[in-house]
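Propose amino acids for all 323 sites.
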C-alpha cells in the first residue's frame, strides 16, 4: 500500500488524519533509509490499517457506491496497459465512428491471447471529458460486438471490464439506435461461440453495463457495484429526489455480497485494505490473476456446452417468491 494519502471519502476522516501524519514523517525524513522510515511510522501504519479494516468490513450500500466511484480507483485503461501484455487497440464500429468510452483490442493475459473490451471513465477531468465519463454511445456497443465476433472467429476468449454509470442518455444516442445497439450485444453475446468473462471493476450501471455482462463467468471487485439503475436515478423516479440515493442504494442490492447471494455473479475478487484506490498495482494483479484462472477452467469445457449454459444463465436471471 502506498504511503501517499489518497483523496478521503466522507466516512474516512480519522483514517485521513493518520495518513497525513504518515506522509509528514516520510516528507521530513527523505534522507532516511526505508527501514528507518518504516520504524518511525510503523505504529501509525498499524493504526491506519486497523481502522480501515473496521470501516471497510461494515460499509453500507451507499458507502460502497462512493468507493466504487473513487477517482483514484484503477480505470479500465490501467488494466489493459498495466495488467495485460502486448495490448493492441482496435477502433471503430464500421458504421458511424469510434467511441472513446469503449476501448478494446487484442492482448496477452498471462500468456493467453484474448480480446479485451472495456468501458473507460477516465482519471483526470480532461480524460473523463474525452471518454464521455464512461457512458458509451451506440457506436461503442457496436464496436464491442464487432471485437467480440472477431474474437469468436479466431477462437479467442473475450474478457470485458465493466465500469460505467450507464449508456449515454442523450438524444443523439437515441437517434443512432442506442437501445438496438445494447439489445444486439445482449442477444449475440449470449450465443457467441467463445468463452466470455465479465469483470465489474467499478460501477456497473443499467443496461449500459449489462451489454458487456452476458458472460460465462461474472466477477466483481469486492467494493464495486452492479445494478439496473444508479441510486440517484432510482431515487429520482421513486421519491422525486436524488437526495434519497442512499435509501435507493440499500434497496437495489447492488453490492457484490448481495449479488453473489442472488446468483447474479459468480466470483468476488478481494480488494486491498481500504479499497482498490489504495493499492492500484495489487488490485490490477489480483483481477488479472483471477481472470486467467477462470479462463484456464473454462478452456476444459466443451464450447457448445459453454454456449448453452451461458444462454440459459441469461434467461434465468433473478429470483422471486412465487407465493
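Proposal:
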Amino acid at each position: 500500500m502506498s504511503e501517499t494519502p489518497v483523496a478521503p471519502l466522507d466516512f474516512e476522516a480519522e483514517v485521513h488524519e493518520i495518513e497525513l501524519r504518515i506522509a509528514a514523517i516520510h516528507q521530513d525524513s527523505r534522507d532516511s533509509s526505508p527501514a528507518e522510515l518504516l520504524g518511525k511510522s510503523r505504529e501509525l501504519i498499524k493504526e491506519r490499517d486497523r481502522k480501515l479494516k473496521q470501516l471497510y468490513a461494515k460499509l453500507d450500500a451507499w458507502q460502497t457506491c462512493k468507493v466504487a466511484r473513487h477517482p483514484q480507483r484503477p480505470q479500465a485503461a490501467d488494466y489493459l496497459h498495466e495488467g495485460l501484455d502486448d495490448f493492441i487497440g482496435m477502433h471503430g464500429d464500421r458504421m458511424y465512428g469510434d467511441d472513446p468510452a469503449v476501448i478494446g483490442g487484442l492482448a496477452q493475459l498471462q500468456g493467453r491471447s484474448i480480446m479485451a473490451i472495456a468501458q473507460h471513465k477516465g482519471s483526470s477531468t480532461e480524460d473523463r471529458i474525452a471518454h464521455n465519463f464512461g457512458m458509451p454511445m451506440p457506436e461503442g456497443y457496436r464496436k464491442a460486438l464487432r471485437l467480440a465476433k472477431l474474437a469468436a472467429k479466431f477462437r479467442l476468449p473475450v474478457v470485458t471490464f465493466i465500469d460505467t454509470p450507464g449508456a449515454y442518455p442523450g438524444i443523439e444516442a437515441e437517434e443512432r439506435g442506442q437501445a438496438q445497439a445494447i439489445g444486439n450485444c445482449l442477444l449475440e453475446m449470449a450465443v457467441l461461440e467463445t468463452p466470455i468473462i465479465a469483470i465489474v471493476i467499478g460501477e456497473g450501471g443499467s443496461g449500459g453495463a449489462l451489454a458487456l455482462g452476458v458472460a460465462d463467468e461474472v466477477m466483481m471487485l469486492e467494493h464495486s457495484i452492479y445494478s439496473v439503475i444508479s441510486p440517484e436515478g432510482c431515487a429520482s423516479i421513486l421519491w422525486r429526489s436524488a437526495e434519497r440515493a442512499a435509501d435507493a442504494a440499500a434497496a437495489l442490492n447492488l453490492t457484490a455480497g448481495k449479488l453473489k447471494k442472488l446468483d447474479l455473479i459468480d466470483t468476488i475478487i478481494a480488494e486491498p485494505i481500504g479499497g482498490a484506490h489504495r493499492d492500484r498495482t495489487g488490485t490490477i494483479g489480483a483481477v488479472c490473476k483471477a481472470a486467467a484462472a477462470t479462463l484456464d477452467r473454462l478452456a476444459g469445457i466443451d464450447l457448445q456446452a459453454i454456449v448453452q449454459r451461458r444462454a440459459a444463465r441469461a434467461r434465468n436471471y433473478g429470483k422471486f417468491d412465487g407465493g
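The chain has a mean pLDDT of 92. The CA atoms of residues 30 and 154 lie 53 Å apart.
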